[in-house]
Amino acid sequence: MSTKAYDVVIIGAGITGTMTAFQLAKYSIKTAVVEAGIDVASGSTRANSAIVHAGYDAKEGTLKALLNVKGCEMMSQITTQLGVHYKKCGSLVIGFNNRDLEELERLKTRGETNGVKGLRIIKRAELAKMEPNVSKDAKFALYAPSAGIVCPYDLAYAVAENSASNGTDYYFEYKVDKIERDGEYYVVCSEDKAIKAKYVINAAGCYADEIAKLINDDLPFEIIPRRGEYMLLDKCEGKTAKHTIFVTPNEKGKGILVSPTVDGNTIVGPNANIVDSKADTGVTEEGLDEIANGARRIVPQINLKAVITTFAGVRPTPTSGDFYIQESEKCKGFIHAAGIESPGLASAPAVSEYVIDILKKAGAKLNKKRKYIATRTKDGNCKLFYDMTEAERRKAIKEDPRYAIMVCRCETVTEGDVVNAIHRPISAHTVDMVKRRTRAGMGRCQGSHCREKVAEIIARELNIDISEVLKFSSNSKLLMGKTK
Q1: CA-based, 20 to 30 A from 265: which of 24, 67, 358, 410?
Q2: C-alpha to C-alpha distance for 222 and 317, rounded to whole angstroms
Q3: The CATH number of the domain where 454 resides is what?
Q4: Same domain, 249 and 397
Q5: pLDDT value of position 475
Q6: DSSP class of residue 249?
Q7: How far apart are CA 112 and CA 95, in angstroms?
Q8: How many domains does the chain have?
Q9: What values do phi and psi take at 193, rounded to 5?
Q10: Could you tell me whether strands 273-274 and 4-11 are parallel, antiparallel, or unpaired per DSSP bridges?
């Protein structure tokens, strides 16, 4: 069997894997990314709080603290380069009593030690001006102006598309079940498929420990799957909070938050409950009640009748409490990037650079490319109709009349947007792939008016029967057959 050879294979197309591919794409090496899911950001990256944390929470001296602060500082440049919505809205950790104030002071000291800039403890009067809807019982807050918000899967799509435009190959529905050695290569297998590489990066999220076992390596900690449930409010409630608002943290983590999103909604959650299955993304009545009570503690008058959808994600919580990024002691050239829980999104740019430094020390020859595409795609075309100026909209419609055909009225998504998403470097070939790239179906009606139209466009553009169009995964057909 002929096996395609690469310099580097990255296992996992979450934000850690795709950001590493993005950084590697600047060099003249052959890189592949393999992903068990059907799309980029199929795991923890798809469902999290979307917060770019400032870095005051991580324990001093940890890798998590170092990379969180550095990654937060890098986020603005990367999102600007690739046309990703990012807003440095700042965060507030509110306190209700003197015991909370002591914790806020401790967090402030920790953050300053970590290198977070601009941290301040503010009192009730200033807090009320900054957040008019916050609980009147909140007497203090730790303000971190460097914190921000970003769409996690949009960021992952952007860096993945950029790396694909620069020659990185992506293999989806590629669940790694065996890794063997063939001379200087690792052969990375998935059922009857195989590719090989001199270096492998394990960025498999919740499954990083299972990947390690395939090379008879054991991570020096256990990965605990911890599920977080969320509510998303309609855009009419988008001004509920101007900043990301937390309460003082507890042993489970940063706790339930109320935050704006870059798309104009308000997000509430998460809780943090250990689950038996790493794939358990179910939403529970008890969990939603927990989130609702937590949100009302922050904003008592929050309108939870405006919830348009609920969802959950599972985070890979390491028992060590820190990121684990290093070359395997048993298998040279095999690099683990494991235990990347929150603040993994904020840390991702710095994590990727850290991984590349390890690659260099392991012997990888990394020479900068002469021809590097700095934009998201080769032609830079990724802007949605919703984000265009009036002049840009007129130009888009003149060049392609499909931009004048509205598909999703809730989110102002046109047929031109959908077609563009289908034909981008990493194709959106299911309804949910289109939804996450264009927001078609993410509005108030949650796709009840546009889902069928999106399916028709996918079928037409890919020249397949509409009965073959999937909602998301290979076992999620929208139509099973004709009734007449």
Answers
A1: 67
A2: 8
A3: 1.10.10.1100
A4: no
A5: 81
A6: P
A7: 19
A8: 2
A9: -105, 150
A10: unpaired
Strand partners, 171: 34
Termini Cα distance of the chain: 46
Which residues are part of the catalytic machinery? 53
Q: What is the pLDDT of residues 43-99, one digit of tens each?
A: 999 999 999 999 999 999 999 999 999 999 999 999 999 999 999 999 999 999 999
- What percentage of the chain's residues is helix, strand, coil (to nearest 5)? 35, 25, 40
Task: Locate 259 and state its tokens.
Answer: 């935050």
| pLDDT for the residue numbered 482 | 77
Rounded CA-CA distance 147/138 in Å is 20
- Before 249, cis peptide (omega within 30)? no
Amino acid at 141: A
Q: List the structure tokens of 27.
A: 């060099």
Residue 376, C-beta contacts closer than 8 angstroms, at least 6 positions apart: 82, 83, 158, 161, 162, 165, 382
312 and 437 housed in the same domain: no
Q: Comparing C-alpha atoms, which of 130, 154, 129 is closest to residue 144?
A: 130
Report the C-alpha gap between 237 and 265 in whole angstroms.
7
Q: Please answer whether residues 55 and 346 qualify as being in contact, where contact means their C-beta atoms are separated by less than 8 angstroms.
A: yes
Compute φ and ψ for 421, nearest 5 degrees. Answer: -65, -35
Residues 126-149 pLDDT 10s: 999 999 999 999 999 999 999 999
Secondary structure of residue 469 in the 3-state scheme: coil
Our separate counts of H helices and E strands in the chain read 12, 22
Other residues' Cβ atoms within 10 Å of the Cβ of residue 178: 11
Assess whether 298 and 423 both reside in one domain: no
The residues pairing with 246 across neighbouring beta strands, listed in sequence order, are 93, 257
Mean pLDDT of the chain: 95
Domain at 258, CATH number: 3.30.9.10
Residue 5: DSSP 8-state? E
Of 263, 290, 317, the one marking the end of a domain is 317
> Which tokens is 97 given?
């009593």
Q: Are 413 and 446 in contact (CB under 8 A)?
A: no
Secondary structure class of 229 (helix, strand, coil): strand
Mean pLDDT of 118-123: 98
Please state, in angstroms and rounded to a whole number, the distance separating the CA atoms of residues 196 and 9.
Answer: 7
What is the side-by-side strand order in the sheet with 148-150?
A: 51-52, 148-150, 86-87
Residues 6 or more apart in contact with residue 301 via CB below 8 angstroms: 133
Complete DSSP assignment for 148-193 = EEE-HHHHHHHHHHHHHHTT-EEE-S----EEEEETTEEEEEETTE
